[in-house]
Amino acid sequence: MLRLRMPAPRSTLLALAAGLALTCVATTAPAATPETATNRSATTLDDTYYQDALGKSGPALKDALHTIISDQSKLSYSQVWDALRNTDQDPDNSSNVILIYAGRSQSKYDNGGDIGDWNREHVWAKSHGDFGTSTGPGTDIHHLRPSDVRVNSIRGNKDFDLGGSEVDGAPDNYTDSDSFEPRDAVKGDVARMILYMAVRYEGDDGFADLEPNDRVSNGSQPYIGRLSVLKQWNEQDPPDAFEQRRNQVIYDRYQHNRNPFIDHPEWVEAIW
């Protein structure tokens, strides 16, 4: 026997239509995920902050980035203490900071000059260009990091390179008479901080023109090496969440400029 299907009641048809409309909306406008939010943020930076640098390479890129990142607020050396308590906060313990070379999590207020304290490490050693701690490169927190007092003294003003003997109290860091090798987790951080300084300080603001070179034992000259090693470290240790957060905090709360090599590590090769 042939069975005839009766039309569905009008209320049922309306409910089905409403459900179909909701499905279409969900299909065309998915909820934002952390990944898409991150991509949107990077795109926004390129469309705004870095727009004058896009499409350039070599000296033209370096010049464009210098102009962009030279627009910044500046801190006094005493203000650096409080800034580092925020920029280098331990993501697992908001009462502590992470020490750059030792990798130790330590109370934010254990700072000073005594053994066991942390102090302000100039990753670009301030004697390389003789800029001291006056406002400018000496207080630029893009290259200032909390460091164990003793390890900071061992690093001194040495250039960066591979090899040497392991540093007591800072596992996986090595040093010899003329160079220092940081632990693997911050090798890229060190490279990008050094290269930021080389772009930011070009000798046009009363301070020395800072440049990387492929030597060690640079003494008081405004150079730091070894550039070929720093480039390798930038490739081997890409920016992680800690470094990216640090860059954002400096931009939002303190200097209002960015380290472009954290946002675009490929620009290292494009310039050098």
From TrEMBL:
Residues 1-31 form the signal peptide. InterPro entries: Endonuclease-I, His-Me_finger_sf. Pfam families: Endonuclease_1 (PF04231). One of its GO terms (molecular function) is endonuclease activity. Residues 160-179 are annotated as: Disordered. Keywords: Endonuclease, Hydrolase, Nuclease, Signal. This is Endonuclease. It comes from Streptomyces peucetius.
